[in-house]
Design a protein that fits this description.
alpha+beta
Length: about 100
């Protein structure tokens, strides 16, 4: 991945197919949870990028704000997150995210 946005999109794709191994592999080792369980009751149905800050090919860190639409038990929902990313050498990693109100 050349940018934080590319990594964010690939992590969304991993959520769609419940690829927990990929999610853990792209999570910063200082913040990755000991146990990561995918929520199979969620059907991810769309991704909207709200904004990005830094996160380019020459940056050391970046921010991606997104809204991911899902359906759970027939009810629609939205996960709104502001995610932080960092570069480790040539590799981007997810650090953490906050959920604005």
């Amino acid at each position: 991945m050349n940018t934080a946005l590319e990594l964010m999109r690939s992590r969304y794709d991993a959520h769609v197919v419940n690829d927990v191994d990929y999610l853990k592999a792209t999570w910063h080792p200082d913040t990755v949870p000991d146990e990561l369980v995918s929520d199979a009751t969620l059907e991810w149905v769309g991704l909207e990028i709200v904004r990005t800050e830094r996160g380019g090919a020459l940056d050391a860190d970046g921010v991606v704000e997104f809204k991911a639409n899902f359906v759970r038990n027939g009810e629609p929902g939205v996960l709104h997150e502001i995610s932080r990313f960092t570069r480790d050498g040539m590799r981007w990693l997810y650090v953490d995210g906050v959920h604005p109100l």
